[in-house]
Amino acid sequence: MMLKAQIVPVTSFSQNCSIVWCSETMEGAFVDPGGDVSKLTEAADKLGVNIVKIFLTHGHLDHAGGAADLKDKFDLPIIGPHADDLFWLDGIEEQAAQYGMAGLRCCVPDEWLNDGDAVTLGNLTMDVIHCPGHTPGHVVFYEKNTKVAFVGDVLFKGSIGRTDFPKGNFDDLVGAITGKLWPLGNEVTFVPGHGPLSTFGAERQSNPFVGDRVLNKA
To answer: Deepest of 22, 109, 161, 168, by most Cβ within 10 A of its Cβ?
Structure first.
């Protein structure tokens, strides 16, 4: 299996930044580098991964706050999220000041992503799935050969993303999870933006927001 990944928690929000790479070429990316840039680069160096890209699932500060520094220091392209999250990316520094989180910066992606797009790392290809609701421009990265999805804050073990932020929408989020993620298969393992890994099948069984029994009662 070519896909390899290592989770590195960053920021005071313990956000799961993933170092993702192709084992054949050792080319990799940071998925959601929210901050703690030196910690991320040291981890990548220890793994022997040549970081060539930055992937963003959405524009919240704990997921995107370190992207500008990484881009400037290592000339890395920022790819994603969907353009509907531009207002979040533009507000990172203001948000960071409110939370007392120093060093996080606004950023502008080199490439916006849309539903049905694909991103590459070495010989790896990951599908892009637009999953609005937590934020309007949230995307998920899915590698079908290993059946692994990097879902940001769409879905968690036992929970789903908050929808009380500006332009959040509960119905959109539930619709994206059930209509776009569940069809990928129960065996898919997902890496959430916070907390432990789980599978789509496990969440369909027991998640109190999007479990099959809960939704069938609605």
So the answer is: 161
